[in-house]
Amino acid sequence: MDIIKPAFHHVTFKTSRLVEMVAWYGRVVGATPNFQDANNAWTTNDAANHRVAFLSAPGLGDDPDKRSHNGMHHSAFEYESFDDLMSSYARLRDEGIAPAFCLDHGMTISLYYRDPEGNFVELQCDSYGDWKQSSAWMRTSPDFKANPIGTFFDPERVYRAHKDGAGFDALHVGMRKGDYEPAGAPPDLGLPI
Known about the structure:
alpha+beta; four-stranded mixed beta sheet; 31% helix; 23% strand
C-alpha cells in the first residue's frame, strides 16, 4: 500500500509567555490570531486556519537544561526570494530583532532567530528557487557532503553588498567560501558543546 503523504500544517508551542509569543510571531512572520483567549492562541500567516499555535497553563516554566535535552531545534519559514529574505532581515533589524546566527547551507540561505521562549526560528530562501534542484544538489553535491551544516555569514555585510549591487550568485559563492564570515566567537547553535 502506498503512503499517503500529508502536508505539514502547524506547530504548537507550550508557553508561559503567551502575549509575548503571539506578538513576536506577528512581528517576525506576520502571523495573526484567528482565535485567542487568556490561555491559548491559534495564529496564521496564510489561508490556513492556523500555522503556529500556543498553549499556556499554570506550572509551565523555562527549562534550564534545554540545550542538552532532546527536542525540536527550530521551525522554519521560507521566502519566495533572496530579496524578500534580505528585506525582512532589514525590517526586523530596524525593529531591534537580530538573528542569533546565519548560515549558507548551500541549498538555502538561512537566518536563525530566537523567539521569546528561546526557540530557534529559521527564515530562509531556497538557493535554487526550485525545490527539485536544491534537493538534487543536497543528494549529489560533494560540497554538501563535506559541509552539511554550511558556512556562517554576517547578515549585515551580505545585506550591504546586495544593496550595493552584488547579485545573488556572487553572494552565494562568497558566503559558501567564507568571504562574509562574522567576526568574533562562533555563534551559539543551541546545542551542547
